[in-house]
């Protein structure tokens, strides 16, 4: 059975925390590939600070840092608001079964899963891998979302072939956020240790997130 990881997000910009989640899931769950899928129009937040072109360029640079990472423009090609349910159904149409898909997210984001389009049916479209983020341990979602407790399984106990589960993955991830990166740039501060050097170079070259924008 194939194992495809999918990480969606605005990636405005993509940072080391995103990549730590992707790497931890790839290693713990033996994912053959992790597709980084930047949203075209994020439905739950204000307009991104960087254009779709620049966000995809930065994701492509980040994907080049790991042999199992790839960048996908499928939400750009689909257009309109970007919803996880639509992206997962597109992968079903491409031949992937729900049990072969692993949607990766941080514990902080998953805590808001009830606000996502088509919840709770959404959870039948793939496995959801919930990874720890600083201040948000993966296991905390058990208490926040007790109605999903029967779906939850520790990442160390996950078995291939299972029906879609919520996989809780404890991992160390960088204490950085996209908003923190943007604030640092606007304040003229260095972003070393927050994003990959290649991403930082792209931001500098194109003057992204400067306060004057």
Distance between the termini: 47 Å
The total beta strand count reads 7
Describe the largest sheet: 7 strands, parallel
In round numbers, the mean pLDDT is 93
Class per helix and strand makeup:
alpha/beta
Seen as an oligomer or otherwise, the chain set is: single chain
Relative strand content: 15-25%
Shape, per Cα inertia axes:
globular
Unreliable stretches, pLDDT < 50, 5 or more residues? none
The tally of helices reads: 8
Strand order in the largest sheet: 3-2-1-4-5-7-6
Listing every helix as H and every strand as E from the N terminus to the C terminus, the arrangement reads EHEHEHHEHEHEEHH
Proportion in helices: 25-40%
What would you say this structure looks like, in words?
The chain is an alpha/beta fold and 213 residues long. The protein is 31% helix and 15% strand. The protein has helices spanning 16-28, 52-63, 74-78, 84-93, 107-110, 141-144, 178-186, 197-206; strands at residues 4-9, 33-38, 69-71, 101-106, 127-131, 152-154, 166-169. The chain has a seven-stranded parallel beta sheet with strand order 3-2-1-4-5-7-6, with helices on both faces. Helix 5 links the parallel strand 4 (101-106) and strand 5 (127-131). Helix 2 runs antiparallel to helix 8 (197-206). It starts with a strand and ends in a 7-residue tail after the last helix.
């Amino acid at each position: 059975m194939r194992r495809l990881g999918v990480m969606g997000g605005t990636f405005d910009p993509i940072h080391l925390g995103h990549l730590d989640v992707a790497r931890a899931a790839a290693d713990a769950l033996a994912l053959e590939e992790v597709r980084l899928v930047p949203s075209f129009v994020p439905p739950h937040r204000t307009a991104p600070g960087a254009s779709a072109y620049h966000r995809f360029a930065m994701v492509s640079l980040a994907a080049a840092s790991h042999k199992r990472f790839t960048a996908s423009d499928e939400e750009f090609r689909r257009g309109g608001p970007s919803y996880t349910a639509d992206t997962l159904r597109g992968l079903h149409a491409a031949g992937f079964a729900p049990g072969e898909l692993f949607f990766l997210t941080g514990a902080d984001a998953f805590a808001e899963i009830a606000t996502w389009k088509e919840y709770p049916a959404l959870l039948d479209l793939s496995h959801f891998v919930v990874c720890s983020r600083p201040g948000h341990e993966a296991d905390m979602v058990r208490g926040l979302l007790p109605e999903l407790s029967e779906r939850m399984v520790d990442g160390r106990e996950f078995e291939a072939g299972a029906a879609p589960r919520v996989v809780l993955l404890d991992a160390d991830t960088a204490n950085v956020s996209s908003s923190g990166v943007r604030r640092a740039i606007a304040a003229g501060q260095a972003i070393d240790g927050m994003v990959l050097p290649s991403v930082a170079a792209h931001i500098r070259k194109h003057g992204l997130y400067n306060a004057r924008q």
